[in-house]
Write a structure and sequence with these properties.
The protein is about 30% helix and about 30% strand. It has about 450 residues and is of the alpha+beta class.
Length: about 450
């Protein structure tokens, strides 16, 4: 994991937020390659969940919503963690995650150990960030608002709007990507858990008697999505939530609970959550109808009845997805004795750079001119870069380390003899000579563009 964190900083995937001021805990910035990787993950999700389906539409809702939304959803009352404080070191911890916490201010007589923290009684702490609408906070807190802790509620409160304008029938879904905020008490493990994060969520509305079937379908669909993008099967698993860990909306006995798609993160002693697929039953629509006084139902013309749909929700974090794709793609390979290369074997669909164009001799204007024209042509079709800042061997290693699937090298023979270039495959390191006027189609075909 330390190697991956180092690579992220060195190659411009992830930076610590406000680093020049010492950083800001559990907040991160995404550099030139990181933002491309994130964008590609989101595009792959959107293509799979919305563009390739007829039964799902997209939406983008406001981060700030009426505070009654969060009262109706149950977040104001139940979205909290039990916390304890150490009376000695003043550290704060989640009470439900405690075993033995060594106190840094109570060293033990035994070398390398510390006595446990002296903990207070547990108390509830709400995870939503508060803010005020307007420049001044009112004494009666009437202008208090919250930064949304999930994108889901924006889809639920727009259920009737989408139903009317998109003219959908059950079953159908509403998808959204956007930023959410949680005042996590125990954030950490790099970008695994952060206080500000992007979500990719689907609310899939269906008839109540079909919800169990759709729950299973969406578990399979989401599991296969990760496999299709190159995540190794042996690192993925599926786990059903126990009763005592279910969210408030998933405890309804009419539902099928929540299932997590889990991944073998190297910093955890057991698989951790990658994506949740929950059966939220009719909790959210019922609650919002009750609190708003508005009807949030689907009229079934066949039965002549109004139906409150059940909802299946696959929900994933973009940052956690990015972390999984980086961990799973990371390889260290011995090319020959004493020569090890680091390579990110990204699926071409999510690789930040698809192809790099490299000159064998950067001082030859004729070679450079061919490179730059080829790069210009490729940029119209895919993510391509030109690089002449090192010898060819180092350029290959650099592109391996950021996950570029293909490198194209223009050499002396290109301009003096055969009008062809060398195409190098990232994973096999095999090289193939391809005619210059065919290389663009050749590479784009390999990439599946």
């Amino acid at each position: 994991m330390e190697d991956i964190v180092s690579l992220c900083k060195r190659r411009g995937f992830v930076f610590q937020s406000s680093e020049i001021y010492g950083g800001f805990a559990s907040c991160y910035d995404y550099g030139p390659l990181g933002v491309e990787l994130k964008r590609n993950i989101k595009n792959a999700w959107w293509r799979s969940m919305v563009q390739e389906r007829d039964d799902i539409v997209g939406i983008e809702t406001s981060i700030l919503m009426h505070p009654k939304v969060w009262e109706a959803s149950g977040h104001v009352a139940t979205f909290n963690d039990p916390l304890v404080d150490c009376k000695t070191c003043k550290g704060r911890f989640r009470a439900d995650h405690l075993e033995h916490i060594p106190c840094p201010m109570k060293p033990s007589k035994m070398a390398g150990q510390a006595e446990p923290c002296d903990l207070t009684e547990a108390r509830a702490f709400n995870l939503m960030f508060k803010t005020t609408v307007g420049p001044v906070e009112k004494e009666d807190e009437s202008n208090i608002a919250y930064l949304r802790p999930e994108t889901a509620q924006g889809m639920f409160v727009n259920f009737a709007n989408v139903l009317t304008t998109a003219r959908k029938k059950l079953p159908f879904g509403i998808a959204q990507m956007g930023t959410s905020f949680r005042n996590e008490i125990t954030p950490g493990n790099f970008i695994f858990r952060t206080r500000e994060f992007e979500q990719m969520e689907l609310e899939f509305f269906c008839y109540p008697d079909t919800a169990a079937e759709w729950h299973e379908k969406w578990i399979d669909i989401r599991y296969q999505w990760y496999l299709d993008l190159g995540v190794r099967r042996e690192n993925l698993s599926i786990r059903k939530h126990e009763w005592d860990e279910l969210s408030h909306y998933a405890r309804d006995p009419r539902g099928t609970g929540t299932v997590d798609l889990e991944y073998k993160f190297p910093f955890l002693d057991k698989p951790g959550e990658l994506e949740g697929v929950a059966n939220r039953v009719d909790h959210d629509l019922t609650q919002h109808a009750k609190h708003s006084g508005q009807k949030l139902t689907f009229f079934d013309p066949q039965t002549n009845e109004h139906v409150v749909p059940f909802v299946i929700e696959p929900a994933a974090g973009v940052g956690r997805n990015m972390l999984v794709f980086m961990i799973d793609a990371y390889h260290e390979e011995e090319v020959k004795p004493g020569d090890t290369r680091v390579v990110l074997k990204f699926h071409p669909q999510i690789a930040p750079i698809k192809v790099a164009v490299l000159p064998l001799l950067k001082k030859r204007d004729d070679i450079v001119n061919v490179c730059q024209q080829l790069t210009k042509d490729l940029k119209k079709k895919t993510a391509a870069v030109y690089d002449d800042t090192a010898a060819i061997g180092k350029l290959y290693r650099r592109q391996d380390e950021v996950g570029t699937p293909y490198c194209i090298t223009v050499d002396v023979e290109t301009v003096e003899k055969d009008n062809a270039v060398t195409v190098r495959d990232r994973d096999t390191m095999q090289q193939e000579r391809v005619a210059l006027d065919q290389v663009q189609n050749y590479v784009l075909d390999k990439l599946g563009v």
